[in-house]
Amino acid sequence: MYEQFYGLSGPPFQIHPDPGFYFESKGHATAYQYLRFGAFQGEGFIVVTGEIGAGKTTLLRALLAELDPARIVAAQIVSTQLQADDLLSAVSLAFGINVEGLSKARVLVTLEAYLATLATSNRRALLIVDEAQNLSPGAIEELRMLSNFQFGNKALLQSFLVGQPELRDIIRLPQMEQLRQRVLASCHLGPMQPQETRAYVEHRLRHVGWSGRPAFDDEAFAAIHEATQGVPRRINALCSRLLLSAFLESGERIDVERVRRVQREMRAEISGEREQPDEAATGAPSGVASSLLCVAGSERDERVAAVLMQAFAAREDLPAARLLRFVDAPEQAGDAVAPGRAGAAHDTTLTLELRAGSHASRVAQVAAALATLFEQSAPAALVSIGDGAIDLACAMVASEAAIPVVRIGAGASRGSRALPGQRRRVLLDHVASLAFAADATAGRLLETEGLPSQCVRVCGSLAADVLRMGLSSSVDPALVFRREGVPLSVLIDPAGYVLIGLDDSSDETVDAVLGVDAQLRAMGWRVRMVWPVEPALRDPLAQRCAAAGAAAVNVIEASAGGEWLALLRHARCLLTDSDHLRDEARAMGVSSLGFDAAAPLRAGDAGLRRQSLLRLAQGLADTIAGGDVRVAPSVDQGPAAERIAGVLSDWLLARQDRNYRTFLESS
Predict the structure, then answer these.
(1) What is the pLDDT of residue 136?
(2) How many other C-beta atoms can be found within 10 angstroms of the C-beta atom of residue 667?
(3) How far apart are CA 64 and CA 76, in angstroms?
């Protein structure tokens, strides 16, 4: 309501880009002239980069509003980890060309014909690729190839690449030499200078009829620049709150004291710096309110959480991150579930101790403990990583408490819905307020299943980020083999070994693993398998393997993160039922085979079951017979964690802005 109070025609500091508010700072003026120059030239590439919130999208929309649609047909796509084939389809659809069901060759022919038709009518095509830093090298190469389309001596397509600073690093890569030769101009949008920050604020206010109410002190403008570092989106967020603060107090002036007070309030809300209630008095762990609570139901989830929390901590505009982990309570523990801190990470880890009991009992303990925790201090969001029963319980309790659930790895490939794990994945994805998918295929699956497109973001796989952090602490696998009694000759055997990584440890899954081994032996293969499991399962599984004559299956105790990565790094192949582990193997250059227990064991027909096991066995044999195809760990696919942190920051900020608008409308 502050617009009416101060006589403004509308909100001056909206978060979403609006070309009507375009402000030409020195950096924006330079970038805008580059774009206009490029549009006039009608060929090659123009590259514009800038930090998140620097105003790139507003710049683009201002240019599009100026172009003559009778002369230039402009299309825009937002890159979300597009691969080469996806890019061609996206470009075609952006220009209104239906290429569904066409082969790549037909897509190219259809697209070229459309562009040539434009040229014959004295029009030309302009493609704007936003968030271009997410393009794969193959997709960038496809863009370069599209720039080869010509009609006579005129290029049929021109492209603007707009993205975050990482785009500059991609273009500098040696394999991008041919693309660099076609870049007509390149510029970077940096932050505004102090005097530009003041002019920017006054420009937006005047655009909605500002007549000097409220008045801004000179020192207030300096404080606004200091607090926002001259980044437009941060300026918008702070100034919107300043106007709200002044309105609630019927104030007519914004001074430096108000700027600093509001800045402290926003930092407390976003970064969890507010004073916390005494832990001893409340019985709840401190540091939960206004934090990002990352749930880790397994050791693998903790590795992913560590990568995410590192990326979150690198941003000042995100709340503090806390890890929520679960341990077995000591036998002498009482009836209460005890929330507390664990290990040396006193400020970043919350631990819930679960009493022994049935699976349902432990899930109920989690739900009860979290419900109490959220009543006492609600986090800004719950970050869900895994797909276990505990993860689902946490997400459901958070959802009931109106705490947004942020889902990592959403849209993973679906197996049989008869499996509990697959049903949990679907439920976890659908309870999410914001779902991060690893690739475009996963993103499309989520939208097909009914998730609103505005809730889905494609930010890449975290596997490479996990490897980057985990390989530094990996160990020599010989140490693990020596400890577990596995012959060291396995490491130098040209055939190598198959690593088994399974989330499901049911009797049916164990039977399937033994069935694959039996099929291999029947084919005349003796393939060494290494199977890390929980300590309690090691001896029973080893006895079952011995009884089945599976001498080549070595059951060892589940290893720590560094040991698992070492075993995976030296494996010839991974046999797994986990998409997360397949991502890790792919990022490390290790072949993997998907193992879905539903296929071989629940088909109902013994013949179908045997065929399924035979196909798996043949796949393993083919992989081993194919020679050493392993490559160096692919740790250059990231940083997905940084992209997730950036999107999450924008999302939380937009959510906060919507909440304030709701408050204003109801007051």
Answers:
(1) 76
(2) 8
(3) 10
Cis, bond preceding 214 (omega within 30 deg of 0):
yes
Ranges of beta strands (E only) in 263-320 are 292-296
Cα–Cα dist 578/211, whole Å: 61
Cis peptide, bond prior to residue 639, ω within 30 of zero:
yes
The answer on pLDDT for 281 being more than 90 is no
- Enumerate the β-bridge partners of residue 646: none
Distance CA 571, CA 580 (A): 17
pLDDT band per the 50, 70, 90 thresholds, residue 86: confident
Domains of the chain, start order: 2-14+193-271 (1.10.8), 26-189 (3.40.50.300), 279-460+642-652 (3.40.50.2000), 471-625 (3.40.50.2000)
DSSP string, 526-560: ---EEEEE-HHHHHHHHHHHHHTT-TTEEEEEPPP
Q: What is the pLDDT of residues 206-234, one digit of tens each?
A: 999 998 999 999 999 999 998 888 888 88
Q: Are 428 and 384 in contact (CB under 8 A)?
A: yes
Residues for the chain: how many in total? 667
Q: Which of 554, 578, 561, 546 is nearest to 498 (CA)?
A: 554
Which letter, b or e, does each residue of 110-123 get, where b requires 16 or more Cβ atoms within 10 Å of its Cβ? bbbebbeebbeeee
Supply the pTM of this predicted model. Answer: 0.49
Cα(466)–Cα(638) distance, rounded to whole angstroms?
10
Residue 197 scores a pLDDT above 60:
yes
Record the tokens describing residue 387, joined without a space: 């797909």
Reading the block at residue 107, the tokens are: 């897509």
Higher pLDDT among residues 610 and 586, named by residue: 586
